[in-house]
Amino acid sequence: MLLAHPAVLRELVARYESLCAAAQECAIAPDLQRRLDDVTYTLCVTTGTRKLEHALAAARARLAATAAG
Q1: Residue 29 lies in a domain
Q2: Nearest to 1 by CA among 45, 41, 43
Q3: How many domains does the chain divide into?
Q4: Does a structural domain hold residue 16?
């Protein structure tokens, strides 16, 4: 299985967290929802998962393993 580069995973997780924070501060505009959906999809594809929770867990585990190794 191909693995995404840690820098890509780090950027995707950061973008997801940033969009979630923005979504909590105000009503979710259609553009914000689209960007959140896009980054969620991309996280799932790059980690080989189907659910956001699993994608985030896989990305964070890979980042932790990269930092430790």
Answers
A1: yes
A2: 45
A3: 1
A4: yes
Residue 13 lies in a domain: yes
For 1-67, the DSSP string reads -----HHHHHHHHHHHHHHHHHHHHS---HHHHHHHHHHHHHHHHHHT-SSHHHHHHHHHHHHHHHH
Phi, psi of 59 (to 5 degrees): -65, -45
Task: Tell me how far apart the alpha carbons of residues 60 and 50 are, in angstroms, rounded to a whole number.
Answer: 16
Report in angstroms the alpha-carbon separations of 17 from 1, 22, 29, 54: 26, 9, 17, 15
What pLDDT, in 10s, does the model give residues 3-17? Answer: 899 999 999 999 999
Rounded average pLDDT over 33-61: 97
In whole angstroms, what is the distance from residue 17 CA to residue 39 CA? 10
